[in-house]
Specification:
Radius of gyration: 21 Å
Number of strands: 6
Structural class: alpha+beta
Number of helices: 8
Order of helices and strands: HHHHHHHEEEEEEH
Distance between the termini: 61 Å
Helix content: 25-40%
Strand order of the largest sheet: 1-2-3-4-6-5
Shape: elongated
Strand content: 5-15%
Number of domains: 2
CATH class of the largest domain: Alpha Beta
């Protein structure tokens, strides 16, 4: 059975000090001291210091949450570990204390991708091929997949996600886009009709996608989830889900 996000976050925080020399509070203070201009800059600053993309994104999200863990505070308490022997009880795990950096109020909301991911996971049907399972398969690119879904849902009210043929379908209610989530990259296919191909848009190559999905973007960085991407999604939605034509009252 796969571990939940709270357990993964617990391991991330507990491993910070032995792996990097700084605990969570010290990393929060270091990010504050760096005075970086935006959230993508924080991720870029963390990566050369030994963090993978997924861990850098997670640390950034904790920082954006006022220095508080995203999932641990909502997780039920774990049962205490049983002693390994009568003479040698298991050591209690240490948990780095978080601090309020001063830049974010204590009530700061989690990163929108976190809320989007939670909504997707809650709405996804249980089973091997659920949306939550497809997101988890992205491994290091899971945070980026969560971000794409969350930003798409925010831009297109009423957007729904459904797992089909190994892809996440974007429905409103007709499919306007699909997302392929893999450990090395994401591929966002969209219904863009006869729009010319050219960077960054390529011809869609997505097994299981409907014929209406003509173009795709290859995504590897959070900075690609920008206004241009949202514009493509809105264009695809206008093609896939045109507004109904009003009936002529004189007919």
């Amino acid at each position: 059975m796969s571990r939940d996000y709270a357990e993964l976050e617990r391991e991330l925080i507990e491993d910070l000090k032995p792996r990097t020399g700084k605990d969570l509070a010290e990393w929060m203070a270091a990010i504050d001291a760096a005075n970086l201009p935006d959230r993508n800059a924080i991720i870029d600053w963390l990566r050369p210091q030994g963090f993978s993309f997924s861990k850098a994104s997670w640390i950034e999200r904790i920082h954006h949450n006022g220095g508080r863990p995203i999932y641990l505070d909502r997780a039920p308490a774990r049962r205490p570990a049983q002693p390994r022997t009568e003479d040698a009880p298991a050591p209690r795990p240490t948990r780095a204390r978080s601090v309020d950096s001063g830049l974010h109020p204590p009530s700061a909301a989690p990163f929108v991708a976190t809320r989007g991911a939670a909504a997707v996971a809650a709405a996804a049907p249980a089973g091997r091929d659920s949306v939550a399972d497809l997101i988890a398969a992205g491994k290091a690119y899971r945070p980026l997949a969560e971000m794409v879904l969350a930003e798409a849902a925010r831009a297109l009210p009423g957007l729904a996600f459904e797992a089909r043929s190994g892809l996440v379908f974007f429905l409103r209610p007709n499919p306007l886009a699909v997302l392929s989530i893999a450990p090395k990259q994401l591929r966002l296919g969209m219904d863009l009709g006869d729009r010319p191909f050219g960077a960054p848009l390529a011809r869609a190559k997505l097994a299981g996608a409907p014929a209406s999905i003509t173009h795709m973007l290859v995504l590897t960085d959070a900075r690609q989830v920008d206004g241009a991407l949202i514009g493509y999604l809105r264009e695809a939605d206008a093609r896939a889900n045109p507004p109904p034509v009003a009936a002529d009252p004189h007919l």
